[in-house]
Amino acid sequence: MTQDENKPAPKTAREAAKSRNRRHLLDSAANVIFKSGIRGATIAAIQQESGLSRGLINLHFQTKENLLLAVAADLSRHYRAHWERAATSADLPAADRLRRIFQADLSPAVLNARDVAIWFAFRSEVSSNPEYHQFIASRDAGFRRTIIEICQTLIREGVYEGADAILAANSFVALLEGIWTDFHLHTDDFDRDDAERTCLYVAKSFFPKHF
Which terminal CB of the chain, N or C, has fewer other CB atoms within 10 Å? Predict the structure, then answer.
C-alpha cells in the first residue's frame, strides 16, 4: 500500500459542514453554560446562541443531555491534551517536566474564566447527574499517574530518604485544585506568576535538591 493510500479520504463538503455545525453547537452550549449555568442551558438558549435549528441539535446529539455530556467530554479532552503535551517529553529532566505541568495547568489555555466556570457548573450538578463525574473529577487517573512517576524519578535521583511519591503527587493535585478554585472565585486579581511560585515552593519542600 502506498503512502497516499494510507491517507484518510478528504472530507466531502457535506461532511465538513456537519463537522463545523457540531463544533459550533459544542462551543455555543459551552458559552450558554458559562453565562447561565447548567440549568440555564436550555435548547432554546443554545439555539439562540448558535443560530442553528433545533433539528440540527437533534441530528447531532438527539437530546440536550447528550449535548451537555459532549461539552463536558470535549472540555476534558482539551485539558488532557494540554497537560500531556507539557508532560510527555522523555528528553526533559523530571524536575523540568513537573515545572511544565505546573505551567500548563496555570496557562490561560485551560485556566480561563469561561472554561473554569464550566468545570464548576458541571461539578455542581454531579449529585443529580453522576455521568458528569467521569469528565470533571479531580484530575484524571493519567494525570495523577504521570505526577507519581515524576515524583518517583525525583526521589531516586535525589536519594530523598523517607519520601513518598504518592503523597507528594496527592499534594500537588490538591494544590492545583485549590489554585483553580482561587482563580474561579478571584479571577480579576489572580496572579499566575504568584501561583507558579507557590507550586515551586511546595515542590522545593519535597525535593530541595531539584528546586
Answer: N
Nine cell digits for residue 49: 446562541
Residue 85: C-alpha distances to residues 35, 56, 98, 204 (Å): 30, 34, 12, 24
Alpha helices in the chain (DSSP H): 3-6, 13-36, 43-50, 54-61, 64-87, 94-105, 113-123, 133-136, 141-158, 165-185, 192-206
Domain regions of the chain by residue span: 1-62, 74-211
- Tell the CATH topology of 74-211: Tetracycline Repressor; domain 2 (1.10.357)
Please calculate the CA angle 139-142-148 and round it to the nearest 5 degrees: 90
pLDDT value of residue 150 = 96
- Provide the CATH topology of domain 1-62: Arc Repressor Mutant, subunit A (1.10.10)
What's at 39, amino acid-wise? R
Q: List, for residues 145-168, the tens digit of each pLDDT value.
A: 999 999 999 999 999 999 999 999
pLDDT tens per residue across span 56-77:
899 999 999 999 999 999 999 9
Task: Give yes or no for a contact between 203 and 210, defined as CB atoms under 8 angstroms apart.
Answer: yes
pLDDT at 10: 62
- The SS3 of residue 145 is helix
C-alpha grid cell, residue 41: 442551558
